[in-house]
Amino acid sequence: MAYVVLSVAAFLPWNSITAKFNINHKIVHQIDVNNYLHLSPQVYPLLYENLDKIETQILNHQSNKVRWIGYQNIEEFKHDLDNRARVYLIGRRNLGFPSWTLADQKTVKKLKTNLKVE
């Protein structure tokens, strides 16, 4: 039974699950916004779609006595997100067919749309 559970768990998109949970978390001032950019690039389109919620999290975090995120505003976060997305897209250009996955293809398409690149 443990083998089955671990096998099923290995196929779950944990980065997406984590990002969705944190983006929709009710206690917005307790979310580690820095962590979003440490997740896999497949969540970057989700982050672009939810920049308004992430901005709310950043602004509410500023009311904490102890601050542990590095972003003061959404522009800083989006700048870093854009940079990471560009690096990911450049890296994908050099990979051949054996490295192709449907998830990566969807991510590349959405990121190109978000960044307005060809």
| Unreliable sequence segments | none
- Total number of strands: 0
Categorize the overall geometry.
flat
Multimeric status of the protein? single chain
Main beta sheet: none
Strand percentage lies at under 5%
- Going by helix content, strand content and strand pairing, the class is mainly alpha
Total number of helical segments?
6
What is the typical, i.e. mean, pLDDT?
Answer: 88
Q: Helix amount, in percent?
A: 55-70%
- What's the end-to-end separation, in Å? 47 Å
The radius of gyration computed from the alpha-carbon positions, rounded to a whole number of angstroms, is 16 Å
- How do the helices and strands follow one another from N- to C-terminus? HHHHHH
Q: How many structural domains?
A: 1
Describe this structure in words.
This protein has one domain (14-115). The radius of gyration is 16 Å and the shape is flat. The chain is built from six helices and no strands. The mean pLDDT is 88. The longest helix has 20 residues, at 74-93. It starts with a helix and ends with a helix. It has 118 residues and is mainly α. Helices cover 59% and strands 0% of the residues. It has helices at residues 2-10, 14-23, 44-49, 51-61, 74-93, 102-115.
